[in-house]
Amino acid sequence: MKNTSLSVEDRLKSDNTGEYAREIGKQLKQTELRLATEARKLHGRSTHEKIKAAETAVKSAAAVMQLFETMGHFDERK
Q1: Does the chain have fewer CB atoms within 10 Å around its N or its C terminus?
Q2: CA-CA distance, 76 to 57, in Å (whole number)?
Q3: 62 burial class (0-12, 13-18, 19+ CB within 10 angstroms)?
Q4: d(CA 21, CA 66)
């Protein structure tokens, strides 16, 4: 069976209302909060480093999404 789903990039490009981008932003924010909570728990050094790295990656993705939105990609914001 052939996978016909669009990539995230394709979905963002075709997202004229910004709804998909807002959903991604919401999910990233939720993930960031979960990672921040997890980082405050007592973990071994290696686990803590992985959590902090994941937190940095999620923050970076959220920043990219904010930039994407502020660039005026969506019809309603032009």
Answers
A1: N
A2: 29
A3: middle
A4: 9
Does residue 71 contact residue 15 with C-beta atoms inside 8 Å?
no
Residue-wise pLDDT for 18-51, tens only, equals 888 889 999 999 999 999 999 999 999 999 999 9
In eight-state DSSP terms, residue 18 is S
**Cβ-based neighbours of 17, under 8 Å, separated by 6 or more:** 74, 75, 76
Tokens read off for 76: 């309603």
DSSP per-residue codes, 19-70? HHHHHHHHHHHHHHHHHHHHHTS---HHHHHHHHHHHHHHHHHHHHHHHHHH
